[in-house]
Amino acid sequence: MIKKLIFAVACMLSVAGLNAAADEGGLRRELTPDQKLRMAAALIQGYYVEDVDAQKMTDEAIIAMLKTLDPHSSYSDPDETKELTQPLEGKFSGIGIQFNAATDTVYVIQTVAGGPSEKVGIRPGDRIIQADDSIIAGRKLPNSAILKILRGEKGSKVNLKVKRGGSPDLIDFVVVRDDIPIYSVDASYMANDSTGYIRVSRFAEDTGSEVAKAIEKLRAKGMTNLLLDLQDNGGGYLGAAVDMASQFLAKGDTVVYTQGLHSQPTYFTLDRDGRSRDLKVVVLVNQYSASASEILSGALQDNDRGLIVGRRTFGKGLVQRPFPFPDGSMIRLTTARYYTPSGRSIQKHYEKGQSEEYMLDMLNRYNSGELWSADSIHVDEALKVETLRNHRPVYGGGGIMPDVFVPVDTTFFSAYYRDLNAKGVINQFCLNYVDANRSTLLKSYPDEDAFAARFEITPEMEQQLISLGEHDGVTFDAAQWERSRQYALAIIKGLLARDLYEDSSVFRFINPLLPEYREALLLINDPERYSSLLKGTE
Question: Where are the alpha helices (DSSP H) in 378-526?
Fold first, then answer.
């Protein structure tokens, strides 16, 4: 009580002092922003009718301030900061499994090679029932809750109870958590005898080295052309984008430069030739390719080093600098803009404090027809510049315009397929099939190549999928199934291969059905067209 009284008096004196300063000589005086904020906090804490959570109030004040700026300046509390930074740091501490929380069961799809779970004998197909005192099975937990249970400090132990096959008995495992790498390369394979394919999902600390290793492996298989897939890649570290670009560009080439009100222009220019300058490159992008993806795409396009296939990219060209607080929270404040080597701003238009309108951009693209027709894309002739070597016209104003536009493909879509997917029927079917036939499948198809060449989804399997859907409330529609069948069967074959072999398998089976991939593959294997587009003569 005495402490509260003393605090209230202090607040009153503080406010009185500020008022006196403002009224001195009968004139009102402006307060500095920090004075006004401190005064408001003192008033609330000293006079508000109820107790106040000062920490929450401070957090909300910071968030409100940042909302008056651009759409990408943000505040994160300590837990949110950890979740944000972990995927880009390239590792976390856990038990080393990839799982699927199908229905109410945590099903182990794969174990990380050499990871903690593999070392103690946990296998794909196992079901985790309990972790320490936490029951997992039967609770329909979200993935975030399961991850919180399974992850932990390096060196800590977790006691798992695991069900294997049809045995009624549970197996006890003691797993010592360790650092688990997070990979940026989702897939890497040969699309044909001369063309390699690499899909990159994020730009993290080790992305450049991962891509370099993938390139060397594909070179050993005869790769001279590269499809670099950045679709749906929301970006990450600037340094990772520069590192990747440096593998394809020449000494003296600029990758990107940044400039802000409080900073001089900073140019990222290469001091040596890249090791992959001999490869022909086509980059696949779409409307969700952002930030570092746009930096890399813009660098290759402006330096006339490769061609871009797909749709206009997201348009995030604002540089966020992290400012951490001692309590683990962090402000990510926009401090500069990204510019491509030709001087284009990557950032699309926004109004300060109007983040809701900014977030509607994708809907606006949909409504305007931009996702289906290149003619619907507005370009500002005042923002037209030229590429640095071949002097092709390119445009600023937000995002990277592809050299070859590919519309969104909806021909495979049906409400029936949507419901099968949304209700987890396809995923559950694949898990059930692999669980029941794993040893037979691996004996018949010892590797992914054999599986790709010889495995066929039978009519009986299709009927099992349809029946499982009916059981889960998805009414069969023959016409809609026929429309989606080819795509659905490719998805199923890819998911079966993923469960049997490795994550990247799924892309190998799905990609040939996707128009962006088919267009990129045709383009890079047509030397005359590739050359004419790169020279701007087509």
Answer: 415-422, 425-444, 448-454, 459-471, 478-500, 505-510, 515-524
384-386 and 330-339 beta bridge pairing? unpaired
Q: Are 384 and 105 in contact (CB under 8 A)?
A: no
Dist. CA 195–CA 226, nearest whole Å: 6
Within 10 Å of residue 255's Cβ, how many Cβ atoms? 26
* Contact status, residue 143 vs residue 97, Cβ threshold 8 Å: no
Span 175-225, pLDDT tens digits = 999 887 778 998 999 999 999 999 999 999 899 999 999 999 999 999 999
CA 297/CA 316 separation, integer angstroms: 13
DSSP code, position 409: P
The pTM is what?
0.82
Say whether 127 sits in a helix, a strand or coil.
strand
Low-confidence ranges of the chain (pLDDT < 50): 1-13, 18, 20-22
Contacts of 157 (CB under 8 A, 6+ apart): 174, 175, 176, 177
Amino acid at 137: A
Q: β-strand 318-324 against 127-131: which pairing, if any?
A: unpaired
Residue 92's pLDDT is what? 73
Enumerate the active-site residues. 291, 302, 316
Mapped onto helix, strand or coil, the DSSP state of residue 170 is strand
pLDDT at 68: 92
SS3 259: strand
Q: What is the pLDDT of residue 505?
A: 77
| The pLDDT value given to residue 163 | 87
b vs e for 12-47, b when ≥16 Cβ sit within 10 Å of the residue's Cβ?
Answer: eebeeebeeeeeeeeeeeeeeeeeeeebebbeebbe
To 10 degrees, the CA torsion angle through 394, 296, 322, 399?
30
Positive or negative torsion for Cα 374, 380, 382, 385: negative
SS3 263: strand
Centre a 10 Å sphere on the Cβ of residue 241 and count the other Cβ atoms it contains: 27
Q: Using one digit for the tens of pLDDT, what is the confidence trace for 280-297?
A: 999 999 999 999 999 999
> What confidence score (pLDDT) does residue 113 get?
64
Give the per-residue pLDDT at 277.
96
> How far apart are the C-alpha atoms of 365 and 312, rounded to whole Å?
10
Give CA–CA dist 94/433, Å, rounded.
Answer: 28
